[in-house]
Amino acid sequence: MKRFTEIVVGFLAMTTLLALLSGGLINAFQIYIWSAVCTLGVGLIFWLVIWGITGSIFLSLINNIHSKYQKNSKNEPSIPPDQSALTTYVDQSRRSGYSDSQIKEMLKSKGWSDEDIGQAVSSPINASS
């Protein structure tokens, strides 16, 4: 099915290109027909190969662009600046060997609210550490 899709996409791309270069869609189809008839079918095999290669290149370019777009548009959680600093602090404290309960106590003693502490400790950024 993939090969068939590549051939169809290549056919559409090459037909468009031939129509532009030869002066119209009818002229493009005449080129296809005469190249197949005059070469006893060898021209048709040539065109099938060209369509397959063109379609393969075209589809791989589309897939590359699509995958780059998906990588760039991943939904990353937006963290307010003060929450970002708190999340960084929690991450650094964990790397220093403090447990979550010790970190929570230190933050409470510094005046942070339970809600902010809970969000920072359960943040997806810190959950991966």
What do these coordinates show?
With 129 residues, this protein is an all-alpha fold. It has 2 domains: 2-72, no CATH class; 81-127. It is 80% helix and 0% strand. The chain has 7 helices and no strands. It is rod-shaped. The protein starts with a helix and ends with a helix. The model has no long low-confidence stretch (mean pLDDT 87).
Largest sheet: none
Structural class: mainly alpha
Number-wise, the strands total 0
What is the tally of helical segments? Answer: 7
Ranges with pLDDT <50 over ≥5 residues? none
N-to-C SSE string, H for helix and E for strand: HHHHHHH
Distance between the termini: 43 Å
- Portion in helices: over 70%
Molecular shape: rod-shaped
Q: How many domains is the backbone divided into?
A: 2
Mean pLDDT: 87
Radius of gyration (CA) equals 30 Å
Q: Report the portion of residues in β strands.
A: under 5%
Key descriptive features of the protein:
129 residues, mainly alpha, 2 domains, 80% helix, 0% strand, rod-shaped
Structure described in brief:
With 129 residues, this protein is mainly alpha-helical. The protein contains seven helices and no strands.
Secondary structure: elements and pairs:
Elements: H1 2-22, H2 25-38, H3 42-72, H4 81-95, H5 100-109, H6 114-121, H7 124-127
Helix pairs in contact: 1-2, 1-3, 2-3, 4-6, 5-6
